[in-house]
Specification:
7 helices
Length: 185
């Protein structure tokens, strides 16, 4: 049997860190997974899965502000950033997907990913399309999140690469996300 030895984890850094955001039903998880699949070595960091790791006392955000739910929202974002930094340093392209619609939330990501080549992709199909996608899922949401579309369009306007996914399939959306002009935050 060959000897098992310690190997270096970090090597040449990944070329980019992708942050795929939008309202619930915009296609974030599907697009992020497809986008990660386009690179030779990439990881999909689904922020909802990080929230699911809280096995007791977990609080999901609701339409009204709640201190503990808001704290956990930033905790999961911080954990996503820690994972993204680790993957990036190891040469693995991190693709983070999260519901980010407020400038303070995006600012938190920017602060915790400072110094990395972040590519912001904002999926914006509109609230009716997002609601229809949610209705077609097996898992239903507890609240109607359509109002977040207007918040996102106001607070994140002109930041990153905006893609209206209303009429696009995941491959078309990923192609736009990868387009050279789409590469800045």
């Amino acid at each position: 049997m060959a000897e098992f030895t310690l190997v270096e984890v970090d090597r040449a850094e990944a070329p980019a860190v992708y942050l795929v955001v939008g309202i619930p039903g915009s296609g974030k998880t599907t697009v992020a997974r497809e986008l990660a699949g386009r690179f030779p070595l990439a990881a999909h960091i689904e922020v909802d899965a990080l929230q699911d790791m809280v096995v007791s006392g977990g609080r999901w955000p609701g339409p009204e502000p709640e201190d503990e739910a808001d704290r956990q929202l930033f905790l999961r974002a911080r954990n996503a950033c820690l994972l993204a930094r680790s993957f990036h340093a190891a040469g693995v392209v991190p693709v983070v997907d999260d519901v980010v619609v407020r400038s303070v939330h995006l600012g938190f990501y920017r602060e915790h990913l400072a110094g990395l080549p972040v590519r912001l992709v904002v999926l914006a199909p509109g609230p009716r399309v997002a609601a229809a996608r949610i209705a077609a899922r097996d898992k239903q949401l507890a609240h109607d999140w359509g109002f977040l579309d207007a918040v996102m369009r106001t607070e994140l306007a002109e930041q990153g690469r905006w893609i209206d996914t209303s009429e696009l399939d995941p491959d078309q959306t990923v192609a736009l996300a990868l387009a050279e002009h789409a590469m800045s935050t």
